[in-house]
Amino acid sequence: MPATKLLGDLAHRGERLWGDRDAFAWQGRRRSFAEVADRVATLSTNVPEAIELCLAASLVGAVIVPLNVRLTPDDLRYQLDDAEVSHGLVHPLLETLAEASGLTDRHVWVVGDDLDRAVAASDPLPRTAPRPDDAAPWIHLYTSGTTGKPKGCLLSQRAWLASNANLAHGLSLTSDDRLLGVFPFFHVAGLGLALATLTMGGCVVVPAAADAEELWRVVDEEAITIGSFPGLKAALEQPGKPGSLRVVFGGANMESAKTLDLLAEVVPQATFRGVYGSTEAGNFVTLSTGDEERERPGTIGRPLFGFDVAILGSDDQELPVGEAGELGLRGPSTMLGYWRLPEASADALRNGWLHTGDVMRLDQDGFLYFVDRSKDMIKPGGENVYSIEVETALLQHPAVVDCAVVGVPDSRWGEAVKAIVVLAPGQTLTIDELDAHCRSVLAGYKRPRWYELTDAIPRSPIGKIVKKDLREAHDPAVATRLPERT
User: Fold this and answer.
1) Among residues 48, 58, 53, 47, which one has the least CA distance to residue 94?
2) What is the layout of strands, in order, in the sheet containing 414-423?
3) Integer Cα distance of 215 and 224 in angstroms
4) pLDDT band at residue 475 under the 50/70/90 scheme
5) How many whole angstroms separate alpha carbon 252 and alpha carbon 250?
6) Which of 164, 169, 277, 379 has the fewest beta carbons closer than 10 A?
7) Are residues 391 and 319 in the same domain?
8) Which of 131-145, 197-211, 258-272 is least confident?
9) How many domains does the chain have?
10) Does residue 316 share a domain with residue 227?
11) What is the DSSP string of 134-183?
12) 325, exposed or middle or buried, with CB in 10 Å at 0-12, 13-18, 19+?
């Protein structure tokens, strides 16, 4: 027996324990645990190959660099060059984007016949092959940076296995679970949930689309037990709620009390689990229930068992219960550091704590409460958006003389980007024109969904924009919400 466990071992374990059972179901097709064990895969949209590539890479010491398919070609090119990517596997639906970003300038395979031929022509990995170091980097996930340039967050196989254990324990996963794979596999949450489900012998079911009607159809036909629905309240208003669901995800402290009540009414057998996490932490950090959020307004739940937490002051000393400070984390799932950014890595990991940049407080029962984001980050639909990047894009328009970008509550995304914009004297720029400008320079998920035009941005006596006040002043009756694009 090897002294350490690798992620790729999970495929062989699955083959041995659950060989004929479904590991994946998608678009009318199925793949068993036995079939997962001997394939090399791609990095793309949510297809089984995206997971299989991760497992295969873990056995040979390769580093996976997930690429967000929602990014612009220029954004992708930056990440490809920064990570020094030499090989790539591309889904056929993304070949145009791959070519525009320069990925096809590398050695690539396309999912389908091209990939199948490459796999068939390759030799199987000998059982006696050297085993990679489980503490070395295995995955290189990009997370947004305050300067607008993303940072490559490095996580080891050891960290990811610890995250698997956190999720399996926190969600009580078993081989009877069937996960609705709606979170993208290029995201730490989507990949982490899928791997944790497979670790316990469950099945990952990938829907053909993310609209509520399609998701409920898949939940019904595939007897889904764990699901997430973009725009939970609107999804719950759809007719027909299957009884198989036992867990429904949402953002911790991001769903309204009315939505939680509606969930309890129409899917009474399902438990709401609010989640808070980060890429640097290796995935989810806390889980909350609907009852906890009702009884303790503002809570994001308790930390998962694999984390030590502390509320840190400016000197990195732990603060007393009830005081607000930066959330610090310790645990085996946290990152190794940032790729080629030693100063940023040292700062984030100083004094033995992962500094999250999130201001929180802790109560006497161990529940965390979110206060503010010191990193000024917005999370629409779980994606990371830094306000400075959106502000920089808005200020590129000659008619915009000042702006501020904040996150505000949103029924569709949980939290959405809002832009407060000041136009130059005499300008009559419309919100639709501002949106078109943002879409031309930003990834779609980064564009503001909310706008408010104003004569001046309020500032503190020292000239600083107090974004906490702007968030609290948000009035849906005054601001303009753009419709979703089809």
Assistant:
1) 47
2) 400-410, 414-423, 450-453, 480-481
3) 10
4) very high
5) 6
6) 169
7) no
8) 131-145
9) 2
10) yes
11) TTSEEEEEEE--TTSS-EEEEEEHHHHHHHHHHHHHHHT--TT-EEE--S
12) buried
Q: 381, 403, 317, 341: which is closest to 68 by C-alpha?
A: 381
Number of helices and strands in the chain (H, E):
16, 24
Residue 4 lies in a domain: no
pLDDT at 41 over 60: no
Range of the domain at 471: 377-481
Q: Which of 304, 306, 241 is CA-nearest to residue 276?
A: 304
Say how many C-beta atoms besides its own lie within 10 A of residue 54's C-beta: 26
pTM reported for the whole predicted model: 0.79
Asked, for residue 65, whether it belongs to a domain, the answer is: yes
Looking at the structure, do residues 354 and 388 belong to the same domain, yes or no?
A: no
What's 200's domain CATH number? Answer: 3.40.50.12780
Residue ending a domain, choose from 362, 392, 420 = 362
Residue 464 CB contacts under 8 Å (≥ 6 apart), including other chains: none
For the cut 90, the answer to whether the pLDDT of residue 306 exceeds it is: yes
For residue 191, give the H/E element and its range. Answer: helix 188-199
Q: State the Cα–Cα distance between residues 115 and 16, nearest whole angstrom.
A: 25
- Show the tokens assigned to 83: 């990570």
Interacting residues of 114 by C-beta distance below 8 A, sequence separation 6+: none
Greatest mean pLDDT range, 383-387, 418-422, 444-448: 418-422
Contact 222, 205 (CB under 8 A): yes
Instruction: Give the pLDDT score at 23.
Output: 66
Amino acid at 332: P
Among candidate residues 377, 384, 374, the one with its CA nearest the CA of residue 443? 384
